[in-house]
Amino acid sequence: MAIMRGGGFVTVQQHIIDEQEDNSIAHSGEFSWLLSAITLSTKIIASYVRRAGLVDVLGEAGSVNIQGETVQKLDLIANDTLKRTLGYRGNVGVIASEEDDEAKVIADPSKGKYIVMFDPLDGSSNIDANVPVGTIFTVMQRQEGETHVDQSVLQPGHKQLAAGYVVYGSSTTLVYTTGQGVHMFTLDPQFGAYLLVRENLRIPEHVNQYSCNEAYLHTFPKGYQSYLEWAKDQEGGNCSMRYIGSLVADFHRILLKGGVFLYPPTQKNPEGKLRLLYEANPLAFIAEQAGGGASDGVGRVLDRQPSALHERTPLIIGGKQNVEEVLGFVKKHG
Ligand code: AHM
Ligand code: MG
């Protein structure tokens, strides 16, 4: 149910404005202005997702992105939509996307002081099968005295000012943090507004459920294999597994119900598959803000210094105790 305040609904813009005064990005009104570009984009993307099958948006676009992945038509629509709306916000200086080779400068540093990075349509290989997909985004401050934009985007995740995602599922849901808890909104399709439904979400500390593509098990490092073997024997065999194959949807379930998501290094992706800057970092920020944890198997995701825009990382993310359990095995067995 939508949460009412003073007899009225709370929209996402209103919620940001109401955030405490010591939060500079939220209080300045700038984040509200910037986020309104993202919410507008996600409403447009949601409308395409809802009509998939009726309009010509399903299937492959006939190209491959810089990461060697087949681009779907909806990937392009989502990417263009975000770039177009963010481009009209004067305070956005740099944008970087999973679908583009390089970060793009759209305003000089005196005006465009924010960097926005995004995965426009996470899990897009699932779209033809009507499985939830999503948009993940993060906002950072542009570095002072920036000499080259590529360097400016390579900041560790603990410097994020705000992060969030939208899941296009049975409903369209927005989750965001500016470092003051994690808040969730549902898009009311009748009003076209995101309305507050949960505030200060907390990931359960421990739930006996994991989320992992075990088809690659034989190529995981020993520590991950040992954890998965051990987990199945816990609590009298009452361990379960859920894997959607859209990171944003798997993470959203964990945020609400607990458990742990793992994408270890594999033979095919020795550095891990997921991208550090616009997949792992925003979700790690949200996980920590909700009392959970996120590790790359060595240390905290948010402390990792990126060296490339499309850098990949292994990812262990979810309930605090769940993540520590996995790390115990990874640190012991490698
Ligand atoms: P993408 O759709 O943005 O390229 O993201 C990669 C996706 C994630 O959403 C998901 O967790 C993962 O790839 C699934 O990979 P796999 O099919 O190897 O299990
Ligand atoms: Mg993705």
Secondary structure layout plus pairing:
Layout: E1 4-5, E2 8-9, H1 12-18, H2 24-27, H3 30-50, E3 60-64, E4 70-72, H4 73-87, E5 92-97, E6 104-105, E7 114-122, E8 133-141, H5 149-152, E9 162-168, E10 172-177, E11 183-188, E12 193-198, E13 209-211, H6 222-233, E14 240-241, H7 247-257, E15 260-263, E16 274-275, H8 276-289, E17 293-295, E18 312-313, E19 315-318, H9 320-333
Parallel strand pairs: 5-7, 13-14, 13-15
Antiparallel strand pairs: 1-2, 3-4, 5-6, 7-8, 8-9, 9-10, 10-11, 11-12, 15-19, 16-18, 17-19
Helix content percent band: 25-40%
Bound molecules: 2,5-anhydro-1,6-di-O-phosphono-D-mannitol, magnesium ion
Basic shape: globular
Mean pLDDT: 92
Distance between the termini: 45 Å
Q: Please give the oligomerization state of what you see.
A: single chain
Low-pLDDT segments: none
Q: How many structural domains can be distinguished in the coordinates?
A: 2
Biggest β-sheet description:
8 strands, mixed
What does this structure look like?
The protein folds into 2 domains: 4-198, Fructose-1,6-Bisphosphatase, Chain A, domain 1 (2-Layer Sandwich), CATH 3.30.540.10; 209-332, 3-Layer(aba) Sandwich (D-Maltodextrin-Binding Protein, domain 2), CATH 3.40.190.80. The strands form 5 sheets. An 8-stranded mixed β-sheet has the order 6-5-7-8-9-10-11-12, sandwiched between helices. Strands 14-13-15-19-17 form a 5-stranded mixed β-sheet, with helices on both faces. By secondary structure, the protein is an alpha+beta fold. Helices cover 31% and strands 25% of the residues. The termini are far apart. It has 9 helices and 19 strands. The chain is globular, with a radius of gyration of 19 Å. It binds 2,5-anhydro-1,6-di-O-phosphono-D-mannitol and magnesium ion.
